[in-house]
Amino acid sequence: MYVCLCLGVTDGQIREAIYEGCCSYREVRNALEVGTQCGKCACLAKQVVKETLTEVQSSQAALAYPAAYSIA
């Protein structure tokens, strides 16, 4: 879905930027220039960033403690 119509930035591009190392909305904005034209997309872009960062953090936490791990 398009998040920023001015620059044609999609939610997939925002997620990809996070997967490639962006850790905040500011970093995503600097990388993709989302929200830098008219600004109407900023709220939605921030929401996509927040949701994606939460997903990434949850998946990293799950990997840190595999189910097969047992304390002997």
UniProtKB/TrEMBL annotation:
InterPro entries in the cross-refs: BFD-associated_ferredoxin (IPR052371), BFD-like_2Fe2S-bd_dom (IPR007419), BFD-like_2Fe2S-bd_dom_sf (IPR041854)
Domain BFD-like [2Fe-2S]-binding per the UniProt entry, residue ranges: 2-50
Cofactor(s) for this UniProt protein: [2Fe-2S] cluster
Molecular function GO labels: 2 iron, 2 sulfur cluster binding; metal ion binding
Keywords of the record: 2Fe-2S, Electron transport, Iron, Iron-sulfur, Metal-binding, Transport
Gene3D superfamilies the UniProt entry points to: BFD-like [2Fe-2S]-binding domain
Entry-linked Pfam families: Fer2_BFD (PF04324)
PANTHER family per the UniProt record, alphabetical: BACTERIOFERRITIN-ASSOCIATED FERREDOXIN
Family membership noted in the UniProt record: Belongs to the Bfd family.
Protein name, per record: Bacterioferritin-associated ferredoxin
Organism listed in the record: Metapseudomonas resinovorans NBRC 106553
